[in-house]
Amino acid sequence: MSAPALLRAAHVPDESIVEGTRVLRRLPEGARPLPYTLFSLRPLGRVIGAEITGVDLAGPLTGPVRAELNRALLEWKVLFFRDQDITSAQQRAFARHWGELETNPLLPAGDTDEVTRFSRSATMPAFENIWHTDVTFRPSPALGSVLRLVKVPSLGGDTMWADMAAAYDNLPADVRERITGLRAVHDFVPGFARFTDPGLLAARQAEFPPVEHPVVRTHPGTGRRTLFVNPAFTTHIVGLDRDESDALLRLLFAQAHVPEFQVRFTWTENAVAFWDNRATQHYAVNDYAPEARIAERVAIAGDRPF
Hints:
Protein name: Taurine dioxygenase
Order of helices and strands: HEEHEHEEEEHHEHHEEEEHEEEE
Domain TauD/TfdA-like: 41-297
Shape: globular
Radius of gyration: 19 Å
Largest sheet: 8 strands, mixed
Number of domains: 1
Distance between the termini: 26 Å
GO molecular function, one term: taurine dioxygenase activity
Family: Belongs to the TfdA dioxygenase family.
Pfam family, one: TauD
Structural class: alpha+beta
């Protein structure tokens, strides 16, 4: 089927988003929300994003607090903590409650290889202002990330996240049927070519060859289906001709742009964000020049999508 015919069959115009009522389901079907008893949680969006108070990230977590935070992460997909005056070592220790940390030799490191340091200003422009899921070019992309702002601009520099389970739920039924079982190729080159020396790109291609992932992955913690393609790293859908693949990917990429599936966070000094990389995409808003914005991120090693 040609790309236009595919989209007509799905009742979706090329490169558009279906208007109308959204299905905004935060939890797996049939699950009931439970109270949080060890900290306070304030929702920032209908399906994604919650602010946590009553947890000190500088110290170790007890087992019950860690378990309740994990439940909050699975329910809200991204958690925000304000007024956390922590060190890089304490940030890493917090993230290790969810697993081993991964390194990313393609990005500048902080005080250790496990820390990625994003230092952006008028002379060092941002490149994260594209909807993406981190490191999907790896066979086992990150489980999640913990981001700490070292320097906050006086205006701008927000980060946005999108719930990719809601994005999947709201696809037309025939599009969901069409993409069931499809696989897509993910490659680091398109995402890094904008800011990386061509020689370094070529040198890293043997270390990070293209990989295939399902277009729709099943979240290992919730069982929900999440849309798992993104414009930074997904190049094409296996088995489709280029025109049909491009048209279908444009449609799927557009789902992250729906405001009802998003939360937007305005950073303050000593704020920390912790997100589920298996369930979200994110976008760093590049509107703070000529001021600087400095952030440090640690990523938790994940598993192979299925």
